[in-house]
Design goal:
Layout: H1 6-17, H2 20-24, H3 26-29, H4 36-63, H5 70-77, H6 80-113, H7 119-134, H8 138-166, H9 181-185, H10 188-201, H11 217-246, H12 249-252, H13 258-267, H14 269-293, H15 295-304, H16 321-337, H17 340-367, H18 383-402, H19 404-424
Helix pairs in contact: 1-8, 1-11, 1-14, 4-10, 4-11, 4-17, 4-18, 5-6, 5-17, 6-7, 6-14, 6-15, 6-16, 6-17, 6-19, 7-14, 7-16, 8-11, 8-14, 10-17, 10-18, 13-14, 15-16, 17-18, 17-19, 18-19
């Protein structure tokens, strides 16, 4: 059976991570934080947290090598019910919601260039097209994913270079720490802003969803997660340094289309429109990667629970076509029924809870002595998982305090997952 290469897996991680968040969240962060140093620290802390999570997931994936990500980990380490709830969250919120957000942003940027288009129907068309592409074969999926991910990285670097060398006079902004910055880093405003940053880094775990289809996963998965996450962290720091250097904070504050505003200010109106087209191209890779990875969670749920067996059906190439179509339909539902910000905060909270218990699972893995001889072990254990757990728990508490409606909707989604497990639990998950 054909397998995904290490290059394809790295492209899945990068493409899953680099999407809506980094091009839309800076404006929201500026509402509570005006210091360039603190804002850069925000993206550094978010990147460090994601890297700690990735290092931990590498050990989990190397010792529990099966597709499904958190569904597989929590089923094996805690209880089948915990795994099911996690899989339900990953399938409905973890991928369908970010697919919807990325597609909605794609529509917004594309219509900035072509105002005669409908942003909603541009988003819908993208989801339908990529759903159809990924229903074909692994070879087609891999080729499309590698092309669009390489294009994404090149375009981001190109954007930063153009702004630096042809963007006119830089802004009067200091990236050095100033009085009061230390207090700001430990403030509620920093924690709330970190919600958006953590969402932007969401996707570092993407390769664990296709572990069974990855070539030599015990060797390659840790490499894939580390390289993919580290590369994105560098890109994010570079992008936000560019944004803050090129445009006044006042015109970015509270705005969604940060990339377009920066290009428009630094290079002129025509450049702003061109940037809209570039960002639209970038988001194709994001939607594609999540359309590729997410349905593998639905597939393993279908393999383990008879009530959802339809989701495990594959075509002649071994591609889980039913699961891909189902996730596409969920994404279309989000696009047609929800607002951007509510979906972002709600999905960030639910995904944070999901990964929190997965990372905690590395301690359970070692306690239960489930480690495979010679398999990767987390670098800087136990500090790496503890850093991730501390930062994630901090932001989850602040979501419940500052955005209670979205937080409790997230809790409700988890409860619904538990009820569905009660109805569908007719055979234990596979442990092969």
């Amino acid at each position: 059976m054909e397998k995904f290469s290490r290059t394809t897996a790295i492209s899945v991680v990068v493409a899953n991570m680099v999407g809506t968040g980094v091009f839309t969240s800076l404006g929201f962060q500026l509402l509570g934080i005006q210091s360039a140093f603190v804002l850069m620290m925000l993206w550094f802390v978010g990147g460090l947290t994601a890297l700690c999570g990735a290092l931990t997931y590498a050990e989990l994936g190397a010792n529990l090598p099966r597709s499904g990500g958190e569904y597989n980990f929590l089923s094996r380490l805690y209880h089948p019910g915990a795994g099911f709830i996690s899989g339900w969250v990953s399938a409905t919120v973890g991928f369908a919601a970010p697919v919807a957000l990325a597609a909605m942003t794609f529509g917004a940027y594309l219509t900035a260039v072509f105002p005669q288009l409908s942003p909603t129907w541009a988003a819908v068309s993208l989801v339908i097209f990529l759903t159809a592409v990924h229903c074909l074969s692994r070879q087609t999926s891999s080729t499309v994913q590698q092309i669009f991910t390489a294009l994404k990285v090149l375009l981001i670097v190109f954007f930063c270079v153009v702004i630096f060398f042809w963007g006119g006079s830089p802004q009067e902004v200091s990236f050095l720490p100033a009085q009061g910055d230390g207090d700001l880093i430990f403030s509620g405003a920093f924690a709330v802003a970190l919600i958006y940053v953590n969402y932007a880094y969401t996707g570092w775990n993407a390769a664990t969803y296709v572990t069974s289809e990855l070539d030599n996963p015990q060797r390659n998965l840790p490499i894939v997660l580390f390289i993919g996450t580290g590369l994105v962290m560098l890109l994010y720091l570079l992008l936000n340094f560019t944004f803050l250097s090129a445009a006044p904070i006042a015109i970015l504050e509270g705005k969604l289309e940060v990339g377009v505003i920066v290009a428009d200010h630094a290079l002129g109106a025509n450049a702003g429109k061109a940037m809209g087209a570039v960002l639209a191209l970038l988001l194709i890779s994001t939607v594609s990667a999540m359309t590729m990875a997410g349905p593998r969670v639905l597939q393993v749920i279908g393999e383990d629970f008879k009530l959802f067996s339809m989701l495990s059906r594959c075509n002649s190439h071994g591609v889980p076509m039913s699961a891909i179509i189902f996730q596409g339909l969920l994404a279309l539902l989000f696009i047609l029924s929800s607002t951007f910000e509510s979906v972002l905060v709600f999905s960030s909270f639910v995904l944070g809870v999901n990964t929190l218990f997965a990372v905690l699972g590395v301690f359970v893995l070692r306690w239960k002595n489930h480690s495979v001889a010679g398999a990767y072990r987390t670098f800087a254990y136990p500090f790496a998982p503890l850093i991730y757990l501390s930062v994630t728990l901090w932001t989850l508490v602040y979501v419940l305090l500052s955005r209670p409606m979205e937080g409790w909707i997230g809790v409700a989604m988890i409860v619904v997952g538990g009820l569905l497990y009660k109805v569908s639990a007719n055979k234990p998950p596979s442990t092969e």
